[in-house]
Write a structure and sequence with these properties.
The chain has helices at about 50-60, 65-75, 125-135, 140-155, 185-200, 200-210; strands at about 1-10, 15-20, 30-35, 40-45, 80-85, 90-95, 105-110, 110-115, 165-170, 175-180. By secondary structure, the chain is an alpha+beta fold.
Amino acid sequence: MTYSLLGRCARTGQFGAAVTTSSIAVGSRVPHVAPGVGGVLTQHRTDPRLGPRGLELLRSGCSAEETLAALVASTPHHKWRQLAVLDARGRTAHFHGAAVKPALNAVHVPDCVALGNILANDRVPAAMAAAFTASADQPLAERLVRAMEAGEAAGGEGKPVISAALVVMEKEIFPLVDLRVDLAPDAMTALRALWDAYAPSMREFVTRALDPDAAPGVI
């Protein structure tokens, strides 16, 4: 009951992920992203251990396909897993375990993979990928949110979504963007509101960390 995507911005080198579902705390389980490395999505009957494991494989020089193959081989319960990987070069890979419930699908476009399970229809990932591609002039976080909104407009999942997350990594070890919604009656509307509120201050928080003397304000 989850749909999500990984994306890379070729201009800035940012990597990011966005996800929503009808269960609580999706942001703590599904998206895993590292600066200069790429990202991993682990969902359906989620094993969050596969995210950090996949990032370590990517750091070691494995491609998206090699990382995915190693992740599938490493888990005895792979029939329950739905996985996606994006590597530093923008290559993507995905896996649907035999027990992952339909409607399910995955769509790959340059620098992006979108996928989902227990969807209202199998066209949802295609709508997400198309929106990501169509907004190439926008910041990566905005592209990811637009993609999620397109997935919702295409049908989303069968039950109302109550949690959502957006994460973008740039150069630092801390996220450029890390926003989460939980137990919201309309999680995607709430995520859009969070991102719109956060976007104007995004760079200020980086300045506070790297050059606090130059940061505006008194906090």
